[in-house]
């Protein structure tokens, strides 16, 4: 593969894209293009921090899941001492896949080809015919599984193969303030409820990442029936109210929808609301008390959504959280992972109610999920057309909007919630990575 640094034409195109972003323009073809996909694998997913798992998915020693950093499959496992490791799922002898299950519990992994055995922490401990075949020339300590760097935030496990990457704290860059709404749901935080849904879709990962970075513009159109039937505690007339918040230069963004007169933290049981407020700072309590819907993306491809949903139209209903990952597997194609996050200390009754709301709305067969997937798939298909090579999209909303200085959260924060500022920040960071300037 010719890299960007070896392809002056590609570098020139990327610099044109980068300049266009600052002027509110972004090309259509990048949402379904082989060269862009290949470059993303090398320059973006090969360098950035990528979400791997939630700690609650592997609660006991020996628990593991298999996940991805770009096109690299990893075993994310908790060892006998409780420490989490992320190792490339490839035997160091001839490269066979070590673990063929998506989740389970194992203290060791044995290659089905030649029988090399590794601890779940990655150390090589067993080599058949070691004395007879290798004559003392192979030292097991030198041939463990390839390790990724990992770090965590409030239960989220991230990984990278970039040894020179900045810390996860620096990478998140203050977006932790907003992540806490999803993750600090009480003194013991959040946990996943059930295994993730995951499926293949003819959708470019970037479309989904942008949508969940705060695209409130599509909601009254694509999900109009939700308003008409009273499933949302807002209306098309009030839906644009709220804030768009992004961390400049980091790519992360969140949309915070606000409905006048909306009861703070509505959809949580009163006792749980009191515990959540204790887990947050005064500034967070003020911001999130004004938040009806919170939909955000951690750059590049991890997203969250929190909102109340009612099975009885017109009532507040139950507040749920979905956590989502868009794993790219080809140009215009991705594998979607979707989890339901619930407060760890909540009652089983509330957890089941939240899971039901999640399942009906944004799980694999959720009603709102189907609305989005139909639009995303068609957008992806059109981006591949020959005419799309010369087409740009407008990202012009909020170009001149100043920061809301009364808002008590970090980053570039503007109102209304319907705004393109988050997306310009997202694509600017994307372009910086592809140019090797992140």
Could you list some keywords that capture this structure?
single chain, alpha+beta, Rieske Iron-sulfur Protein, Naphthalene 1,2-dioxygenase Alpha Subunit, Chain A, domain 1, nine-stranded antiparallel β-sheet, about 25% strand
Protein topology:
Blueprint: H1 8-22, E1 25-27, H2 34-44, E2 50-54, E3 63-69, E4 72-78, E5 84-88, E6 103-105, E7 108-110, E8 117-119, E9 124-126, H3 130-134, E10 149-153, E11 156-160, H4 168-172, H5 176-183, E12 190-192, E13 197-201, H6 205-211, H7 219-222, H8 224-228, E14 242-246, E15 253-257, H9 270-279, H10 282-289, E16 293-298, E17 302-309, E18 318-330, E19 333-343, H11 348-361, H12 367-383, E20 392-394, E21 412-414, H13 421-434
Antiparallel strand pairs: 1-20, 2-11, 3-4, 3-6, 4-5, 7-8, 8-9, 10-11, 12-19, 13-19, 14-15, 14-21, 15-16, 16-17, 17-18, 18-19
Helix pairs in contact: 1-13
Percent strand equals 25-35%
The CATH superfamily of the largest domain is known as: Naphthalene 1,2-dioxygenase Alpha Subunit, Chain A, domain 1
Count of distinct strands: 21
| Tally of individual domains | 2
- Helix count from the secondary structure assignment: 13
Q: What integer is the average pLDDT? A: 94
Low-confidence stretches: none
Task: Give me the secondary-structure category.
Answer: alpha+beta
- Summarize the main sheet: 9 strands, antiparallel
| CATH class placement of the largest domain | Alpha Beta
What's the shape?
globular
Give the second-level CATH assignment, the architecture of the largest domain. Alpha-Beta Complex
What percent of residues adopt helix (DSSP H or I)?
Answer: 25-40%
Q: How far apart are the first and last residues' alpha carbons, in Å?
A: 22 Å
How much is the radius of gyration in Å?
23 Å
Organism: Rhodoglobus vestalii
Domain Rieske: 49-128
InterPro entries: ARHD_Rieske_2Fe_2S, RHO_NdoB-like_C, Rieske_2Fe-2S, Rieske_2Fe-2S_sf, Ring_hydroxy_dOase_asu_C_dom, Rng_hydr_dOase-A
Protein name: 3-phenylpropionate/trans-cinnamate dioxygenase alpha subunit
């Amino acid at each position: 593969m010719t890299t960007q640094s070896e392809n002056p034409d590609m570098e020139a195109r990327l610099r044109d894209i980068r300049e266009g972003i600052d002027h509110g323009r972004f090309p259509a073809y990048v949402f379904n293009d082989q060269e862009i996909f290949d470059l993303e694998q090398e320059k973006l997913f090969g360098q950035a921090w990528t979400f791997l798992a939630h700690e609650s998915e592997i609660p006991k020693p020996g628990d593991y899941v298999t996940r991805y950093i770009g096109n690299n499959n990893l075993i994310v496992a908790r060892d006998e001492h409780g420490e989490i490791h992320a190792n490339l799922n490839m035997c160091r002898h001839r490269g066979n896949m070590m673990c063929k299950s998506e989740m389970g519990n194992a203290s060791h992994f044995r290659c089905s080809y030649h029988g090399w055995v590794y601890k779940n922490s990655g150390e090589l401990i067993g080599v058949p015919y070691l004395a007879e075949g290798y004559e003392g020339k192979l030292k097991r300590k030198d041939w463990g599984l390839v390790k990724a760097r990992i770090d965590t935030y409030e239960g989220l496990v991230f990984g990278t193969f970039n040894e020179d990457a900045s810390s996860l704290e620096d990478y998140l860059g203050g977006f932790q303030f907003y992540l806490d709404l999803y993750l600090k749901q009480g003194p013991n935080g959040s946990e996943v409820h059930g295994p993730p849904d995951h499926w293949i879709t003819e959708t470019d990962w970037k479309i989904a990442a942008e949508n969940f970075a705060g695209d409130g513009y599509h909601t009254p159109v694509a999900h109009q029936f939700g308003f008409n039937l009273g499933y949302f505690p807002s209306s098309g007339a009030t839906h644009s109210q709220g804030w768009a918040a992004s961390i400049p230069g980091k790519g992360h963004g969140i949309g915070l929808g606000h409905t006048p007169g909306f009861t703070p933290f509505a959809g949580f049981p009163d006792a749980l609301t009191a515990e959540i407020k204790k887990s947050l700072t005064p500034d967070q309590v003020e911001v999130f008390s004004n938040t009806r819907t919170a939909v955000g993306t951690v750059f590049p491809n991890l997203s969250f959504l929190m909102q109340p949903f009612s099975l009885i139209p017109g009532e507040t209903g139950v507040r749920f959280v979905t956590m989502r990952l868009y794993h790219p597997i080809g140009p215009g194609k991705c594998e979607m992972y979707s989890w339901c996050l619930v407060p760890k200390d909540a009652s089983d009754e509330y957890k089941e109610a939240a899971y039901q709301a999640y399942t009906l709305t944004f799980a694999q067969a959720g009603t709102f999920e189907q609305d989005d997937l139909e639009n995303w798939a068609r957008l992806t298909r059109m981006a591949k057309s020959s005419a799309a090579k010369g087409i740009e999209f407008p990202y012009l909303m909020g170009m001149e909007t100043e920061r809301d200085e009364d808002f008590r959260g970090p980053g570039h924060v503007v109102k209304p919630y319907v705004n393109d500022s988050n997306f310009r920040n997202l694509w600017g960071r994307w372009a910086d990575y592809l140019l090797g300037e992140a």
